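agent> fetching stored inputs for the tryptophan docking request
agent> found them:
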Amino acid sequence: MQKRENFGGRLAVIMAMAGSAIGLGNIWRFPYLVGQNGGAAFVLVYIAACALLALPIFMAEAVIGRRSGSNTFGAMQKLAPGTRWKWLGLVTVGAPLLLLSYYSVVGGWAVDYFMKACSFRFMGDTSGIFGRFIASTWEPLITHTVFMALTAGIILLGVTKGIEKFTKITMPMLFVLIVGIVIYGLTLPGAWKGVEYMVKPDFSKIDARVVATAMGQAFFSLSLGVGTILTYASYMRKEENIVSSGNYTALFDLLFALLAGFAVMPAVFAAGIQPEEGAGLVFDTLPYIFSRMGWAGAVVSILFFFSILIAALTSSISLLEVGVAYLVEEKGWNRRRSTLVLALGTWVLGVLCSLSSVIFDLFDQLCSNWLMPFGGILFTLFVGWKMSKADVRNELTNGGTRNRRIFPLVYFLIRYLAPVGIVVVFLSNLLS
Ligand code: TRP
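agent> prediction call returned; pasting tokens
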């Protein structure tokens, strides 16, 4: 058996986890969900969902991953041998691949926009640009293929040379660019309406569906419920601090989502686009901003779509890694074969998503509304009720040396609040 690799240190762990968390979920999905769910009220519910439901699940997954030092399936075999928990291990090998299939299609959109930016396509009239792209058959298929190939390429390089190197450089760059775009966007005429939309809540907009959507988005954005965080945490060294890594990851993730919201919403109002538009929102408004900026816009658009692409890749590799870790450790395959087989299978599913928006939506619903909450509940129940409290405490407090005061709170959230909260939101959504 090969020796297992580890992330190099505290910074590497946070960068890799933040790299997984920060992605299309923040930049593409969050702004359009804000637009579809009533603006600032949704933002508030979202923040609450992150803190109370998502963060405890993050810690639960990380506890399982680091305690076992295994892939999702191996973790269940080690920590609960001979039980039905192994099914949780298996489902969470498959779920990320399903997610990756349509994630890669959207990643392909980013590839396309990056190429458009490089050929100065955003310097002229950009109206209806997304609709035309989506209506064509071949372009999205080709870019989906490119995106999947890039993902597989990074995974082939391995944990330290691939994932770790890549994320450390690119995440700070994305941050700088997005802040720049926010600042520019605020100078557009009519932009302040968008700021108001982001910060002035209309509480009458909150209902069960909005809460459920916010919860689903919190799961999606923090990469929860399908074993991604579990797998990454299995590469964490024993002296690393799970609680603080989780807090930092969630904080950075929230920051990027809010920044994306503030980059997009002012432009939406300045351009007279409807915030309810849906999946195309970002891909319509950002070109509009860039087209107003002249040559500066041309340069910034290249850098920006490059960064989105990178952010998407640091997430997609985390999705592929779950299955690769499983095949390498449980089936004895080599890394190369595992990566190629899984990437190819996922690519085929992605082709279906690219050709049919019905399948695309079906996969998205299945993952966000069912598999992630389902996985999230089971991971928290596992840590809260199946593992011994001493083991959990040991992981969360590094053997009693850190986080001692906050441990009872975290344990309570994992054991009671998160599972109950998810069930309540889930049921009320089904009933309404
Ligand atoms: N969190 C990533 C994003 O926001 C996507 C992602 C990566 C993900 N791994 C995941 C989503 C696992 C759900 C589960 O773009």
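agent> quick read of the result: Residues 98 and 363 are 7 Å apart (CA to CA).
agent> awaiting further instructions
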